[in-house]
Amino acid sequence: MLAAIDPLSTNILSLMYFGDVVFAISGALLAGRKQMDVIGFVLIGTITGIGGGTLRDLLLGRTVWWTQEPFELILCVAASLLTFFVIPNSVARRKWMIWADALGLAAFAVVGCHVALSVNSPPLVAVFMGMLTATGGGVIRDVLTNEQPMITGGQLYASVALVGAACYAVMRWTGADEILAESLAFLVCFVLRAAAIIFDIRMGPPGEFIRVGDKDSADRNPNPKA
Questions:
Q1: Helix (H, G, I), strand (E, B) or coil at 186
Q2: What pTM did the predictor assign?
Q3: How far apart are CA 111 and CA 130, in angstroms?
Q4: Range of the domain at 162
Q5: Is residue 2 situated within a structural domain?
Q6: Is the pLDDT of residue 73 over 50?
């Protein structure tokens, strides 16, 4: 039986705010690669941080969280500004954005699933909402900056968010401790995404489910290691 879910627990808020910061940084770093000004940094960084959660709340019929608790919005703006003033242009390379995105993906896969379960969504829907929360902000970021969205690039991305969210939902369904469920689901999602980045693991074409280190796709790889 599913354990009671508290949408405002300290643990889940901490994980959500962590996801906000790293996703905002990923958006700001991409803005840096596009040579945007400070407004561009704040816009892209903030939208990346809150985009997925906003879509989730709208679909669940919830009040969008950051419209009631602006601390989340402030965090995204602050992280974007800090990136603008602290990170030199030479460091604003795609690999740093990709790793910040990986951390945000893992955090929001858990947060999104947690929030959906807290409003009594069926577990399957909650897992989907975890994936949406984890990928939504990045999709908006990439579309606004005219980048190929990572979710369509072939490399494992949305699938690892689904696995992380499913891991959390199953553990909570079996009555596992909340902190253990959050930590394990986060690690599973991040490790899988890290492996996909390092070894270029992709979903293959029909007849080849998984492809590792596809050299032929190097030119179109949206997630290069450098």
A1: helix
A2: 0.89
A3: 7
A4: 10-220
A5: no
A6: yes
